[in-house]
Amino acid sequence: MISAFVLLLCSLSAFISYQTWHILVRRHKSYQDGCEPPTRLPGIDPIFGLDFFFESLRLQRSDRILATINSRFQKYGRTYELRALGSPVIFTIEPENARAVFSTNENHWGVAPLRASAMTFLGRGIITVDGDEWKRARNLVKPNFTKSNVMNFAPIESRLTELFENIQSGQQIDLQSSFLRLYMDFGAEWVFDETFSHADMKVFEADFDNCLSGSGLRLALGPFAFLVPKTNWLKSRDVVRSLANKYIEQALCSISPEKSQTQGRLSFPRYLADKAISRPEAIDQVLNLSIANMATTAIHLSNCLFILSRRPDIWQLLQAEVAALPNFTFDSLRTLKAMRNLLLEALRLYPIFPNLSRVALCDTTLPTGGGPLGTSPIFVPAGTKIVPSQMSMGRDERIWGPDAAQVRLDRWDEGDLERRAWHFMPFGYGTRACLGQQKSNMEVSYILARMVTRFERIESRDAREWVGRMRVTTRNANGCLVALYKKEGVGDAAVADA
Ligand code: HEM
């Protein structure tokens, strides 16, 4: 008993000595080469940062973390630092810093230290690894994004027709839940090239969601993730991985290697098998692609509808624009200007990834944000987490003007978009940029085009503001509560070519 206590005491004092030494070395380096440290948030515990850690957990649980990060920028400036669980975390809305992280010094930054252990249900794939392992994963995943693989609206259309049939005119519905469910089903079919049975989908949906929530919490806890009870989470992880295995097996049985060469559309499980990828790795790769696919487009779509339910003028604008189309194809949908601008406004105000974080893999620098004026370069020791806040950049009045908080479609027709590149990166930037951007944009446009054609109007049934619930992706904590009113004499199925 005593020796355990002595061991604990020794470990604690070794940790404190290491942290103090680290802070002193860092302070020294912070002032070399013109570098100055950024504003440090005043806290009670300067070594472990336990106060900030517990506060961010509380804020995350009550869905107030994004609003707090935003208000700290107002109070402490455009770049600030705090210490959480013994490691520095830098928050920034300086475009120059975003450029350094995602472009100029891209190789100095990674995601694996953040994600690999927090998202074990995904294994090692494109979302969770860095370096050569990531390059290999990206090469394996990329063939899914050929035109023929992403240009097919038919599988969405059948599910959309069913959803429309179930919508009663004027009755309240949560479109966020409806589209998350639709996308789970459609997303699984797209990734596995197999349709899940109804019973399996129900289980997959619940356990996948449990894995996402558990991973969100573990991402927030960082090195202390081991403190969270695991039993439930591990059970969900095993269920998700075993269902993934089942449907990979099923896909391999139903598509022979010869058929996969001729059918036009890529079957990802068959492709991985043809490349001699082992089954455990194939499960990792399909689940990494699934997480990127399943809870992104559905939330974006729901955010667009959240805006539309409060802006009948934009709904009517879309109706007029869509009515002029001869059919709903990739090429025709691409020409819709108001549609494009609505999608951009929704991503600006309600980004799916509001904090696109990275960890410094080596000692590096940021070009600006240090010193009392917030303009000096900053020395960044390896292990520092950086949070370029997409949410706060999207609402920054210095970039978007005094009406930054409002939805205004024609802001996207003014000036050059290039100038805003580093303020607005909803799909990431650089070599790790999103592979599914075009697929997602086209699907959201298609579904919205179908909705404005089928429904006369949409009404909000919720006076509350949008509240970001940040887990792995960020959705509206209140859902998207609306009522839709059907047009007389229009059927639920597509009225034009899909
Ligand atoms: C509105 C919808 C979407 C948004 C806002 C979005 C956003 C992003 C962002 C910000 C990243 C970069 C992450 C980082 O740098 O750490 C990313 C990566 C990725 N996205 Fe998306 N995404 C969306 C939809 C999709 C869809 C539908 C798919 C697949 C069908 C997809 C596949 C991927 C993949 C595979 C990556 C990893 C790229 C890499 O690391 O090389 N995304 N996405």
TrEMBL record:
InterPro entries attached to this UniProt entry: Cyt_P450, Cyt_P450_CS, Cyt_P450_E_CYP52_fungi, Cyt_P450_E_grp-I, Cyt_P450_sf
Pfam families: p450
UniProt xrefs under SUPFAM superfamilies: Cytochrome P450
Protein species of origin: Pseudovirgaria hyperparasitica
Signal peptide: 1-18
Tagged with keyword Zinc: no
Cofactor(s), by name: heme
Family that this chain belongs to: Belongs to the cytochrome P450 family.
Coiled-coil region(s): none
Domain of life where this protein originates: Eukaryota
GO MF: heme binding; iron ion binding; monooxygenase activity; oxidoreductase activity, acting on paired donors, with incorporation or reduction of molecular oxygen
Organism ancestry: Eukaryota, Fungi, Dikarya, Ascomycota, Pezizomycotina
Protein name per the record: Cytochrome P450
Binding site for heme: C434
PANTHER family assigned to the protein according to its UniProt record, in alphabetical order: P450, PUTATIVE (EUROFUNG)-RELATED
Sorted UniProt keywords: Heme, Iron, Metal-binding, Monooxygenase, Oxidoreductase, Signal
